[in-house]
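Chapter summary example.
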Amino acid sequence: QVQLVDSGGGLVQTVGSLRLSCVGSGRYYSSYDVDWYRQAPGKGRELVASMTSGGGKIYADSVKGRFTISRDNAKKTVYLQMNSLKPDDTAVYYCHVLVTWGQGTQVTVAS
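The structure predicted for these 111 residues follows.
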């Protein structure tokens, strides 16, 4: 069974950067597709970026060119590098694999 731990959130100024990490456990973690979702106050959870076990990537239109998803299978970690952050990026960010969610990490972008 996979378990996930998200980290790396914080408070940052507009156009600043953060890198989120999702550390997974489980024997087959590197074989799974991994997603990053976010949920802003009063809104539903939305897909931000996804990476397949083979290295394929997709991004939400709102983050293309600013966010980069990557993974280090040896460390069982998936990263979300977030650059040029905007106040609209403020949300709780969640890592997701199969039916398992991380606990979430808060990202706040101050204008």
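To summarize the output: The two ends are 40 Å apart (CA to CA).
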